[in-house]
Give the backbone structure.
Amino acid sequence: MSPVAGTVLAVLLSLVSAAGYALAAVAQARLAASSAPAGRGALRALLARGQWWWAVGLNAAGALAHVAALHYGPLTLVQPLGALTLVAALPLGAYCARRRVTRTEWRGALLTLGGLVGLVAMTGPAEPGEALSLREALIVAAATALLIAALASGRLSHGRGAEGGGKSGGKGGRGLGHATASGIASGVGSALTQTLTAALALELPGKEPVWWQTAVLAVLISGFAVGGLLLSQAAYRGGLAAPLAVVNLSNPAAAAIIGVALLGETFRAGAWGWPIAAGASLVAARGVVLLTKGGAPAPEAAPVPSPVVAESRPVSPLPRPATDLSAFPVPAPVSTSLPLPLSVPEVEPARASVHG
């Protein structure tokens, strides 16, 4: 295949991947709006919904298209095109909600997209065959698990002031925390996938890994993938645009931090790369703020009515009213002036008549 044809195919596959991720995000947001609040049995109820499995299938299709695009095109082309997920999800979500995309949402989406493209463009690729060692992979996985637990519990997404600042503020902060945790899980999962691929090809530095080490990597990758999907589902309770933007930002950011710190990746602009990346991060953060303020509020799930329990109280007998009989007048006896003894008139017996 010619380089031009490969580039065109990579662009088409990247667009298909972005569309798949956008449709999955819209489906997850609508599912989150119609689901009961998180609690006991919420995961079981979620797994019983067919819409959830449609979203899982769309996410899987988007991931496969993204991997295929990386096979035919360079990372510097495919990764920025993946940011079009946010631009595609905005009108799709507004259409499903029967409303229009506001100007503030479009401004936020463009700022987020520009900042994300700037971050991806500044990060240079690692050398071919570079991957985390097994020891580094386990350390990164453990640190990431602790960070995700803190974000998911809300300890890093909002403090005491946000908790007392209103129901919507706390819910939005918790949603962005879940979105950040989801993106980090996906980014670390990508780095671990690269390590697993190198382990299977026997290209890891040091001695050859044994089978159980490779199995541990596979389990960690599966755990981060499933955890990232469930965390994104929880994040969409606060809306669609802002959580999706945070997921798309934190995913490459986590991968870039691992690449620069452990894999020898560098910024393309040399010494200017750090301030340019910081500026792109600020632009993207401003876009997320606009998306948080400009979007329509997420519909509240219908509250589950609690059973009414009758309160038992001891019943005391009612006091009988005291009646004073002397207050009622007693009628005087009625006198009769009939002569005594009474005379009864005599009745003559009837004579029987004989007919001859």
About this structure: Residues 2 and 261 are 36 Å apart (CA to CA). Residues 3-294 form one domain. The chain has a mean pLDDT of 77. Residues 167-200 form the longest helix (34 residues).
